[in-house]
Amino acid sequence: MKACILLVEDDFNLGFILNDELQSQGYDVKLCLDGVEAIQEFYTKNYHLCIFDVMLPRKDGFTLAKEIRVTHPDVPILFLTAKSMTEDRVEGFKVGGDDYLTKPFSSEELRLRIKALLKRINIKVDEEKEKIIALGKYTFDSENYLLTSENFKKTLTKKEAQILKILIKYKNQVTPRDIILNAVWGQDDYFVGRSMDVFITKIRKYLKHDTALCIVNVHGIGFKLEEKI
Question: Cys-Cys with 156: which of 13, 66, 127, 161 at CB 3.0–4.6 Å?
């Protein structure tokens, strides 16, 4: 399976060129044009490398890196910037960046830096996780948003499916509120927080047919999907 790269570049022409170049090198690439789109996309699959332009609309590259580092401390992050100031480089490394490229750069330099980053963490590219997920007495088809059990069948909304998928990923662990909010809505303000609470309540109702499953509120932090054995 190909290594998956999340490329975030708001200059569409440059983004298209980089996307085409990386694909020609054998990578599976997803191009996003702003930071909000990128943080939502990041949680949809297992990315092996992130390439972030620093200056992005809606959410900048440094902020993206900070948010991703909360749950993914090891995924390599390469920053692209038109600036060469030392302060920007220092800030990039402080927020969790692994490497830095100043525009303009050659495709060969980009290729070598990506290869070095993937090699540095001794990356192993596995097949993507199953789309059909077993959860207690339920079966969750994450691709078609379908949650079923022996006497229950429910097609979830896209946001319900995204939230459930995240909770399953961190099952029996506390999932911070801001992780869910950024992954599903791209922001973590008060109003979308209240909306998320409504979605959590709905998901709890869907899971009530299995008493071994429970979504617990962890006050001031987030939620935990518990599966009792």
Answer: 161
Q: At a CB cut-off of 8 Å and minimum separation 6, what does 163 contact?
A: 180, 184, 196, 199, 200, 203
Q: Does a structural domain hold residue 125?
A: no
How many residues does this entry show for the chain? Answer: 229
Instruction: Tell me if 48 sits within 8 A of 123, measured CB to CB.
Output: yes
Cα 87 to Cα 110: distance, rounded to the nearest angstrom: 22
CB 61: neighbour CB atoms within 10 A?
26
Q: What percent of the chain has pLDDT over 70?
A: 94
Residue 9 and residue 64 in one domain = yes
Q: Which amino acid is at 1?
A: M
- CATH number for the domain spanning 48: value is 3.40.50.2300
For residue 32, the model assigns a pLDDT of: 97
* Region 157-175 average pLDDT: 92
User: Which 3 state secondary structure label does DSSP give 6?
Assistant: strand
What does DSSP assign to residue 7? E
pLDDT confidence of 127, banded at 50, 70, 90?
very low
* Average pLDDT, integer, range 104-110: 90
Residue 147's domain comprises 132-227
CATH code of the domain covering residue 216: 1.10.10.10
